[in-house]
Amino acid sequence: MNETIFFFFYNLAHKSQIFDSIVVFFADTFPYIVIILAGLFLLFHHEVLKAEEPFRVFMEKKKEILLAFFSGGLAWVLAAILKYIIHTPRPFNAFANIQPLISETSFAFPSGHATFFMALAISLLFYHKRVGYIFIFFALLIGIARIIAGVHFPVDILGGFILGALVAYFIKKVS
């Protein structure tokens, strides 16, 4: 089933240069934009940058701001450790006919992108429901783009989503 879903999405690639460029954007560039958007949202939502004393306002809201990025960072580190332990090949290593749209060299499971962005999204969801749902959508978009790009199987993305959500939940509970 994992391979069937992978090929469903991967077969969308290599049909149009424009579509491939869009996929590469969402798989490789958009994640940086999402990080910037999350940071800007957290800073402007609390008016940290507009305050007369931005450091004081930041210190008042630091738990929420740090929770989001600490959860994402910790989740990403755990994903990297699991990749090293599990050694799951990427689709282009498993199948000779797969030509990835982007270059990746590490192992596949769990997806570090899916893990980081789901942890970030769930952390935001704890404090801001609507914004959290938007960032969950962003995480899904990034995950699907990475499948279409040929660098992840669906199980890599799903595993990353689960790991990211669990890390965000755990960090919220212990904070």
The Rg value, from CA coordinates, equals 17 Å
> Which CATH top level class fits?
Mainly Alpha
Named CATH architecture:
Up-down Bundle
- Which percent range fits the helix content? over 70%
CATH level-4 homologous superfamily: Phosphatidic acid phosphatase type 2/haloperoxidase
Order of helices and strands: HHHHHHH
pLDDT < 50 runs, ≥5 residues: none
Instruction: Provide mean pLDDT, rounded.
Output: 88
Assign an overall shape: globular
Outline:
By secondary structure, the protein is mainly alpha-helical. It contains seven helices and no strands.
Describe this structure in words.
The chain has a single domain (2-174), classed as Vanadium-containing Chloroperoxidase, domain 1 (Up-down Bundle), CATH 1.20.144.10. The termini are far apart. By secondary structure, it is mainly α. The protein is 75% helix and 0% strand. The chain has helices spanning 2-10, 17-45, 54-86, 91-94, 112-127, 129-148, 154-174. Helix 3 (54-86) packs across helix 7. The mean pLDDT is 88. The relative contact order is 0.18. It contains 7 helices and no strands. The longest helix has 33 residues, at 54-86.
